[in-house]
Design a protein that fits this description.
With 347 residues, the chain is mainly beta. The protein is built from four helices and 20 strands. 10% of the residues lie in helices and 38% in strands. This is Copper-containing nitrite reductase.
Length: 347
């Protein structure tokens, strides 16, 4: 019965988020608000703009690994390990041929060493060996961006899965020569799992459960770090616009079946490849942990569109976001039919 009540509570939260009517915090949230609780959810529109047709350059990337207590769910907190105090870490945007200098600093108040392994790197450990950094220290390395694509990065300090689950992941976009086809808006979304001793829906501080982590049985599934984290920080666009979603899976363990309810992906950059031919008119895309994709959507009809993993039980554990599309109704494409009015029999 307890599990059933938790599922019902989660369903109610999702439904309220979908229609945009969540207005009041719980009593536990009010109590937590008096404590230094960090906003760890990266807004989906928080990413650098396109690079265009510029030539190769020397690009400097500065990252700080910071451990902070953040909001996991309504009334619940968790100690996140982050890049630059957000989950995911910043989207790094470079061009093929760039020389990239990565400077990593580990906050002096961290409990653990941290580093970074970028899947876009050709070199030992993806940079992990060069950036193993103790609390209070810093490290640096450079690499040449040899191949265009959308790549994941993450902490690779043992236990690697622990560091990733705690929020240490992000993406690096290596644009091809000349850049990508333009769209009106771009968004940055990543999926992950969090393994806690406390059951889903429990209020208060949550701690990592290592048996659940090793057995791959998470309590929470998250977009951008928090349960239903994209119900307040929504993706926002307008009818007639084209959008691109850069989507990745930090994991550390679960594959995503990424889907937007009520939309069709016009273009899919499969497996994060930017040199391959795009795939058109796709309903759901499979993204492995440590993998990525980019999808383009032309927006035809206003309304709220729900981002999900089509392993839909995960919605009940925090995995849902909202794309809000504003604009004029388009009844030629989509419209409700009113039921005919019934009249009394005249006989």
């Amino acid at each position: 019965m307890k599990a059933q009540r938790l599922l019902m509570t989660a369903s109610a939260l999702v439904l309220a988020a979908f229609v945009g009517t969540v207005q009041a915090e719980t009593a536990a949230d009010a109590k937590l608000s008096a404590e230094p609780i960090a906003d760890i959810v990266r807004a989906p529109g928080d990413l650098p703009g396109p690079l265009g047709a510029r030539g190769p350059e020397h690009v400097v990337v500065n990252l700080d690994t910071v451990e902070v207590t953040g909001k996991l769910a309504d009334g619940a907190t968790y100690r996140y390990w982050t890049y630059n105090e957000k989950v995911p870490g910043p989207l790094i945007r470079v061009r093929v041929g760039d020389t990239v200098e990565v400077n990593l600093s580990n906050d002096e108040d961290s409990w653990f060493p941290h580093n970074i392994d970028l899947h876009a790197v050709t070199g030992p450990g993806g940079g992990g060996e060069a950036t193993m950094t103790m609390p209070g220290d810093s490290s640096s390395f450079t690499f040449k961006a040899l191949k265009p694509g959308l790549y994941v990065y993450h902490c690779a300090t043992p236990m690697v899965a622990d560091h990733i689950a705690a929020g240490m992941y992000g993406m690096i976009l290596v644009e091809p020569e000349g850049g990508l086809p333009p769209v009106d808006r771009e968004f940055y979304v990543m999926q992950g799992e969090i393994y806690t001793e406390q059951a889903f829906g429990t209020q208060g501080e949550h701690a990592t459960d290592y048996d659940k982590l090793l057995n791959e049985t998470p309590e929470y599934y998250v977009f951008n770090g928090s349960a239903y984290g994209l119900k307040d920080k929504t993706l926002q666009a307008e009818v007639g616009e084209t959008i691109r979603i850069y989507f990745g899976v930090g994991g550390p363990n679960k594959t995503s079946s990424f889907h937007v309810i009520g939309e069709i992906f016009d273009n899919v950059y499969s497996l994060g490849s930017l040199n391959s031919e795009v795939v058109n008119d796709v309903q759901t895309v499979t993204v492995a942990p440590g993998g990525a994709t980019a999808v383009d959507i032309e927006l035809d009809v206003p309304g709220n569109y729900i981002l999900v993993d089509h392993a839909l039980s995960r919605v009940e554990r925090g995995l849902a976001g909202i794309l809000q599309v504003k604009g004029a109704e388009q009844p030629a494409i989509f419209g409700a039919i009113e039921a005919p009015v019934k009249t009394a029999d005249a006989r």
